[in-house]
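Project channel, design review

CF: Before we commit to the Afipia massiliensis constructs, I'd like one complete example in the thread so the newer folks can see what an input/output pair looks like. Taking histidine kinase.
RD: sounds good, go ahead.
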Amino acid sequence: MTVTSPNSSFAPWPDRLRRSAIILIATALGLAASVVFGGLTLPQAGLIFIVIAGAALVPWHLHQSVPTSEDMIGARPAETPVVQALVGGMPDAAVLLDRAGRVLHFNTAAGQLAPALRKNELALFALRSPEIIAALREAIATRQPQRASYVDHVPIDRWMELIVTPLSLPTAFGGSEYCILMTFHDQTPLRRVEEMRADFVANASHELRTPLAALSGFIDTLQGPAREDPKARERFLGIMHTQATRMARLIDDLLSLSRVELSAHVRPEKLVDVVPLVHQVIDGLEPLASERQVAIEIELPPAPVLIAGDTEELLRVFENLIENGLKYGASGGRVMVSLTEPVPDDATGEVRFAVRDFGPGIPPEHLPRLTERFYRVDAGDSRAQGGTGLGLSLVRHILIRHRGRLLIESVFGHGATFTACFPATKSAMTAAKE
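CF: and here is what came back for histidine kinase:
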């Protein structure tokens, strides 16, 4: 079914008569005056009226002389809402530019990747990486697709691949509009998987060599000289169980560390109340505290303390820090666990979880390297305590993912304090100011 507009040549005649009424009335009055005062005959006046009426009723305006907004959009297809919706719906960061390199559209992912992007401004002002600038200039000059790889170091290292694709969009009048589509593919997960695989093989082979050698030796002994010795068998089986437990924990820590590193560029957004998490960890470590004869002193706020984080990873942070205090600061007889919210005078605006022990402390030369993988102040004591050398490294990487930081303070001979600092949520900052 064809719908005709009122301006078409098939519009109803009553509509045209209504629109031409003023012209026809004025013509009739003028002709009547001419007949009465000017000597014009009635047949002549009637003929003139018919001619003017016909001219008024014929649709002379077959084409519009002033271009409408639809015409303008047809001439610039890249400006249409459809193109904007397509760019906005792309899963990767995407930016559409005109032939001069000015931004036409960009999606949310691109805005997060380059916050300086502005519509109708040159993309080179917001994308300052030399690799991006070179690829974009080459694509504009040659109108050929370009690829470039670069590393974005802010806020953390991210490996990105840029694809610059020249496009030619047909216009409504048979022409074409030249545009440039930039898409950014995040290669960080792939790179981290490769690093994870290499690190896991290197670290696991190094750290597992000792317990595997011990297990192999005890098995040979149990199959040989100690075959008929019940006391030796019980002793060796106990040692083997300890070594097997250590290997299992080592593998668990390595996998946890690799998973955290793999998602380090993705900041958690779920709000978590950390007060019950700290209580949960302390309840789980009570047997260890009783075994080491260490009292756990708690200083937690009564109200909820919310931070943006991953529940399982936060539990791992609290558990590692408190467990370290119970193991390596046991000689002090007590461990203080505290959680503080931001105060109005605190410029950092951080939620701080602190564990202080009163043990032997840490020599100052070791402090800068404590969060390195497998670094131990006393390797023998660490292995005797069941440590893997990965706990603080795991804590540091979890805090990096949460955009936090780890503070270590120690005076040799007077204990140590480990503080995990998390960015406060907006609601917590508002409550602190009030």
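RD: helpful, thanks. Residues 1-11, 61-67, 69-74 have pLDDT under 50 and may be disordered.
CF: Residues 77-188 form a domain with the Beta-Lactamase fold (CATH 3.30.450.20).
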